[in-house]
Amino acid sequence: MRRFIPVLHGFYAISRLIPIAMTVALSTSKLAELAATIKTWGRELGFQQVGIADLDLGEPEAWLFDWLAAGFHGEMEYMARHGVKRSRPAELVPGTVRVIAARMDYGPPDAAEPWSVLNRPELGYVSRYALGRDYHKVLRQRLQRLAERITAAIGPFGYRVFVDSAPVLEKALAAKAGLGWIGKHSTLLDRKAGSWFFLGEIYVDLPLPVDAPVTAHCGRCNACLEICPTQAIVAPYQVDARRCISYHTIELHGPIPLQFRRAIGNRIYGCDDCQLVCPWNHFATMTAEPDFRARHGLDAPGLIDLFGWDEAEFLQRTEGSAIRRIGHERWLRNVAVALGNAPPAPAVIDALRMRQEHPSALVREHVEWALAEKVDKSLELV
């Protein structure tokens, strides 16, 4: 049985509520014409693809409950907080009958080649989705403009825009809308675009014609399972977030479990390994969105420099970025682990010692671990 988890990019309450209301009736032909026009408008607004889904999420709902029952969500208690509202859109927003799903490419064309960063332990690796402006804001604004265009064309109708802003099964809805299939790594895949894209939704009370799902094309490939540094993909389509580096470096608030620290390597915010090895990403197109271009040199930053940021500099360098959500304390925690995995150079040891008396017990604990790793690595070299 296939299983999935929602993508570990976070949970943002930023959507604007437009109450679902009675909409003027449109004929079947007018609804079909409107659906086609919505897709055209979506492309004009910068989305690479727009599709329309119905609300039947019975199978994904079963996957979700199995995933939660297994405890694979870890400390992400919000995943279980809303009951069936996540898998039954009309219970989240009464009156909803369709979901408009949209995707937008984010692969930054000007960023350092990912493996070249991952293979240099003195650098820090930031997941490619977080190198530019916070995608929640970008997609939410575009989807709002799309809804306003629909309003201008047909008059007031009921809708609500979501971009990681409520309990929504965004990948399952996108798959139903024909935007791709959920791969073995639990990320949505498209044959022509790979997986380097964001998703957003508009819940609507318009009975628009729906799009057909696409067939899956993972075949016998298990590259994503084999590459995962922490073996978080415990079976095809089944991800245990408690083992996932994205979970540890973004979602987890406390100490990173000792058993995973060495495997984290120099990944300081998220992890892209399963996407980097996916054959379908050979066909991915880099983004043309200026907002998603790499900023502040975070595509290949030096770990010692990052560890030297005080809170004010962290906030300044991550302004408008999804990275800011983890805060300065967890930023230092993550970088300390990466420095613990770096070669035992004197500059690395000096940088760690500068944080030994940090006010945060969380930071101090990870610094002490990193310094102990330096001793171990030095002994290995003798």
Automatic annotation (TrEMBL):
Superkingdom, natural source: Bacteria
UniProt-annotated catalytic positions: D164 (proton donor)
Residues that coordinate or bind cob(II)alamin: R86, D164, L188, L199, S246, C271, D272
Cofactor note: Binds 2 [4Fe-4S] clusters per monomer.
Cofactor(s) of this protein: [4Fe-4S] cluster; cob(II)alamin
Key words, A-Z: 4Fe-4S, Cobalamin, Cobalt, Cytoplasm, Iron, Iron-sulfur, Metal-binding, Oxidoreductase, Queuosine biosynthesis, tRNA processing
Subcellular location(s) per record: Cytoplasm
Pathway info: tRNA modification; tRNA-queuosine biosynthesis
Family classification: Belongs to the QueG family.
Protein name (Swiss-Prot/TrEMBL): Epoxyqueuosine reductase
Encoding gene per record: yjeS
